[in-house]
Amino acid sequence: MADCDLCGIALPTLVPVKVYKPKYAHSYPQGMWQGLCELCVSAAIRTKEEQTRTGSCGTAGTCQLCSSIERLYGVHISRPSFSQGEEKDTVYLCSRCLNSISDAKGEWDRDKAEHSHEHITRGHTVH
For residue 76, what are the β-bridge partners? Predict the structure, then answer.
């Protein structure tokens, strides 16, 4: 089990997203892996598409995924809550992280399609 780095929900499988963190640029020059649940990934992709469509300039601040000071875009997510089941929240991500999430989702979907194809060709059923 792992926790989503945006909403904190614990799931057995998360979408791996490579995020460049300026604070760790010397140790991890290619970026660090973060795990996001599919709901947070979908919310980030919707925000990226909306930002691309409207051309909004965002707000200045610190990205909640990579900690860089950039222009940020609000991503509407749901956080798990013991008292209410879930709480609506907004996290602010930079365009570089939104692009990384979008790229990771494409790779994630391709990998899932390839693995399901392998199971079918071997005669196994896919669950």
Answer: 90
| Cα–Cα distance for residue pair 116/93, rounded to 1 Å | 32
CA distance 79 to 86: 5
Coil, helix or strand at residue 119: helix
Neighbour-count burial for 98-111, b at 16+ CB within 10 Å, e otherwise: bebbbebbeebeee
User: What's the pTM?
Assistant: 0.82
- Give CA–CA dist 21/88, Å, rounded: 26
Distance CA 21, CA 104 (A): 16
pLDDT tens for the 127 residues of the chain, in order: 899 999 999 999 999 999 999 999 999 999 999 999 999 999 999 999 999 898 888 899 999 999 999 999 999 999 988 888 889 999 999 999 999 999 999 888 888 888 765 544 455 554 5
